[in-house]
UniProtKB/TrEMBL annotation:
Coiled-coil regions listed in the entry: none
E.C. numbers: 5.4.99.-
Name of protein: Pseudouridine synthase
Domain RNA-binding S4: 19-76
Lineage summary: Bacteria, Bacillati, Actinomycetota, Actinomycetes, Propionibacteriales
Species the sequence originates in: Nocardioides yefusunii
Top-level lineage group: Bacteria
InterPro entries noted in UniProt: PsdUridine_synth_cat_dom_sf (IPR020103), PsdUridine_synth_RluA-like_CS (IPR006224), PsdUridine_synth_RluC/D (IPR006225), PsdUridine_synth_RsuA/RluA (IPR006145), RluA_PseudoU_synthase (IPR050188), S4_RNA-bd (IPR002942), S4_RNA-bd_sf (IPR036986)
Gene3D superfamilies in alphabetical order: Pseudouridine synthase (3.30.2350.10), RNA-binding S4 domain (3.10.290.10)
Length: 312
């Protein structure tokens, strides 16, 4: 994520004749030899028009060309229209969207793909300025690999009201998950603390010293290889449903990160976890009226469910 911008050309003075290129650059530009070596390794340094190695020596009077890449901030919100994001509801206080798979809610280090906040900026939505700059207006998140309904705040008042509603768990969040096998009992509650996985920093796990996490589930359909569950979250931890279902030994179909069967995933042609935020209900921050918003299954999940229903 770099763009070449600042180029500087200098002539090597007598006093640096015979020095290594990295040492000469360090003296002339006032940065470390390590930084000089990085620029040389990137192919950004030329002496008299030719690429150099850091151990090459410079002569007096040669022309030293250095291009300094301008680093882009990984947290910068880049306005861009993202295909597949649907606007379910829009008013002065909130905008409710249907988020497709493969879209992050906001920018983060290491993520270079599309984001919800980038789409809203690109589509001309003004959202609340509360929260960190890359997360303005965001009161809830869905994983990149999870689709469905979510709300973003446009006014400062809506942000503070809904932030509290999510914090005090007065928002009704309903998910559907297709999980492997048949949970026993058919409906129940998982109350198990979740923390970062001790070995893999991209995963979470049930950990004794983790954060309090509660998931309620009930079976809607039971099929030969998998069950369709309706899930209500009492808490909102990262990967909560995926971790809890995996802990029950019934991971979401297609969720390789948390132990799903790759053969079954291939059979239903799924490249992500079968998990969808189907419904969101809360008191509207301006009117106080209870509102609900829903999202239907996207094509890949609908297809996978049909394959499971037809399997005998």
């Amino acid at each position: 994520m770099t763009t070449h911008a600042d180029q500087r050309t200098v002539f090597v003075p007598e006093g640096l004749a015979g020095e290594r290129v990295d040492a000469a650059m360090s003296r002339m530009f006032g940065f470390s030899r390590t930084r000089a070596a990085e620029l040389i390794a990137m192919g950004n340094v030329h002496v008299d028009g030719s690429l150099v190695a850091k151990s090459d020596r410079v002569a007096a009077g040669v022309m030293l060309d250095v291009v300094f890449p301008v680093e882009t901030d990984p947290l910068e919100v880049v306005p861009e229209i993202v295909e597949g994001i649907k606007i379910i509801h829009d008013d002065d206080a909130i905008v409710v969207i249907d988020k497709p798979v493969g879209v992050a809610v906001h920018p983060s280090p290491g993520w270079t793909g599309p984001t919800v906040v980038g789409h809203l900026a690109g589509a001309g939505f003004r959202i609340s300025t509360s929260g960190a700059s890359e997360r303005q207006g965001i009161v809830q998140r869905l994983d990149v690999g999870t689709s469905g309904v979510m709300v973003i705040c446009k006014s400062e008042h809506a942000y503070s009201v809904l932030k509290n509603a999510f914090r005090y768990r007065t928002v009704d969040k309903t998910y559907h998950a297709l999980v492997q096998g048949h949970p026993d009992p058919l409906q129940g509650t998982v109350d198990a603390p979740i923390g970062r996985h001790p070995k893999y920093d991209y995963k979470f796990a049930v950990m004794a010293d983790g954060r309090h996490s509660i998931t309620h589930y009930e079976t809607l359909e039971a099929h030969r290889f998998a069950s369709l569950l309706e899930i209500h979250l009492e808490t909102g931890r990262t990967h909560q449903i995926r971790v809890h279902m995996s802990a029950l030994k019934h991971p979401c179909v297609g969720d390789m990160t948390y132990g799903a069967d790759p053969t079954l995933a291939r059979r239903v042609n799924l490249e992500r976890q079968w998990l969808h935020a189907v419904k969101l209900g809360f008191e509207h921050p301006e009117t106080g009226e209870y509102v609900t918003f829903e999202s239907t299954y996207p094509d890949d999940l609908a297809h996978a469910l049909e394959v499971i229903r037809d399997a005998h």
